[in-house]
C-alpha cells in the first residue's frame, strides 16, 4: 500500500502551462510543484505574464496548453479539463482568490458580515446564527472591529477592505490561496500590517499560497520560494532568500538592484 | 366587426409564445426567453402578462383581470377592455367564474381549480438580479444551482432589521431545482403558489416566460433559525370583517384615520353578499 498522506505529494503540480493572446505570449511552458503549507511568490515587471499565469492557475482563464494538477482527496485532478461546475465548486471550497482591488473581490453593496457569510451560504450553511458567529469571528481575526459587521465595504478604508476580502476568502478554510498583488495600492504602514496579518494566518492555518507581486519586500516576508518571470517565461526559481541575495539571471539582478534603499 | 386578429397578436407570435409557455411548464421555474412584442401599452403595465394571456385565450374563455387584488383599478380595467375589444371574450369579476385570470401583485383569496389559469405580470424575472448584475453570470448560477447568493439577501435583511423583511417578491425554490421570483406578490401569498391551477409568468420588457404546473412544490427560502413567515396586517377587514385575507391600508383623512380592507375586492364583495359585516361597513345594502 502506498502511503497517501498529504505530505508526500505536492498540493499543486503545474506542467507546461501556456497561454497565448493571439500571436503574443501570455506565459509559456511554466511548470512547478507547490507543496502543502508552502508559499510561493511570482515576481516580475508589468507585462511579464504573472497575472496571466495566476488566472490560468485559478481557472479564470483557459490555458492553451499544459496541466494544473490539484491534489483532491489524494488524487491529482487536472483542473484545466475538469467540468466547469466542479471547478467553480473548487473555487468556493478548497481555493480562494484575493484580488488586487478589493472591490473586485467583494460585494460592495452587501454588509461586511454578508460578504464573509456568502461563501458559507454557497456551500450550504442555512443557520443564520452560525453564519453570523463565524463571520464575526473572521472579521475580528482580520483586525476589523466587530461592531463594523453590518457596515458596507463602501464605508471601509482601503486596508480594511483588503482585510475583509481576506476574511471572506478564508472563512471556508481553503487549502490553496491565490493572491494577485494583495498589497498593491496600500500605503506602506497599512501594507506592513496586512503582511503581518497574512503571515500569521498562513502559518496558523497551514495554508499554501501563490502570491503574484512586483514588490520584492512582500515576497521576502511571505514567500518560501520564488519564481521570477520575464516576457512570459520563468527565468529563475529558488528559495526566496537565495534568489534575492544571490540572483543568477541578469534580469533578476536588475530587479533586485532596482529596489530603492531607504 | 373589428380589424384585430383574435386577441390582438398574430397567429405566428401566439404560436411562438405558446412554445415558450410549454417549455416553461416542462421545466418549472426556468426562465424561458421569448421574442416579446411591442404592445399598445407601456412597459411596466403588464406587457408580458398580456402577451401570455393573448396566447392562452380561446373564444370560449372567461377573463378576469386584477391589479393588487382589485378588479376596478386602471391597469385591470384597461387590460380587461383590451381583450373585450380584441378577443371579444366574456369577462367577469368573479374569481370562480373565470377560466383565465391575469393578475398583478396578488393571488386571489379563493382557491383556484384545475380548470383555471393564473397569468402574472412580472417586472423583473431574475431573483438574483439585485445582487448579481451580470445576466451571463446569473444564468450560469441557475444552470449550476449556485444559489448561495439568494441567502445573502435574506442574511442582509436579518442583519439590518432583525428579521427577514422582504415582504414581496419573496424568492422560492421550485421542485428543489430552480430559484424563482414569484413576481411582486406579498409573501402572504407564497404558500398559495402550490395550487391546482396552472400559473404562467410573463415579463415583457425582460423577454422571459416561466411557469408552475399544477401542484408543483414551491418552497419559500429561509434560514433554519429564521423560518419563513406569512405576514398580514393584524386587523379584520373594515367592510366584510374577514380576519384571514390580505388587507390594504386606506388613509381616510389627514388626521390619521385609516381603515383596512381586503385587497381582493371580489372576495370582499362575496363575503358581504353572504351577510358578513365589518366594523366600518355602512348600514343597509353594501352593494347596490
Automatic annotation (TrEMBL), chain A:
Q: Which InterPro entries match?
A: AAA+_ATPase (IPR003593), ABC_transporter-like_ATP-bd (IPR003439), ABC_transporter-like_CS (IPR017871), P-loop_NTPase (IPR027417), PhnK (IPR012700)
Q: What residues form the membrane-spanning segments?
A: none
Residues in domain ABC transporter? 12-256
* The keyword Glycosyltransferase appears for this protein: no
Q: Where is the signal peptide?
A: none
- Which is one Pfam family of this protein? ABC_tran
Q: Does the keyword Lyase apply?
A: yes
Q: Which Gene3D superfamilies match?
A: P-loop containing nucleotide triphosphate hydrolases (3.40.50.300)
Q: Which SUPFAM superfamilies match?
A: P-loop containing nucleoside triphosphate hydrolases
Q: A Gene Ontology biological process annotation?
A: organic phosphonate catabolic process
Q: Which UniProt keywords apply?
A: ATP-binding, Lyase, Nucleotide-binding
Which GO MF terms does the UniProt record name?
ATP binding; ATP hydrolysis activity; lyase activity
Question: What name goes with this protein?
Answer: Phosphonate C-P lyase system protein PhnK
Automatic annotation (TrEMBL), chain B:
Q: What is its EC number?
A: 4.7.1.1
Might you name a Gene Ontology BP term for this protein? Answer: organic phosphonate catabolic process
The leader peptide range reads none
Q: The organism sits in which domain of life?
A: Bacteria
Q: Which reaction does it catalyse?
A: alpha-D-ribose 1-methylphosphonate 5-phosphate + AH2 + S-adenosyl-L-methionine = alpha-D-ribose 1,2-cyclic phosphate 5-phosphate + methane + 5'-deoxyadenosine + L-methionine + A + H(+)
Q: Which UniProt keywords apply?
A: 4Fe-4S, Iron, Iron-sulfur, Lyase, Metal-binding, S-adenosyl-L-methionine
Q: Name one Pfam family in it.
A: PhnJ
One GO molecular function term? metal ion binding
List, alphabetically, the InterPro entries matched. PhnJ (IPR010306)
State whether keyword Ribosomal protein applies: no
Its function, per the record, reads:
Catalyzes the breakage of the C-P bond in alpha-D-ribose 1-methylphosphonate 5-phosphate (PRPn) forming alpha-D-ribose.
Q: According to its UniProt record, which protein family does this protein belong to? A: Belongs to the PhnJ family.
Protein's recorded name: Alpha-D-ribose 1-methylphosphonate 5-phosphate C-P lyase
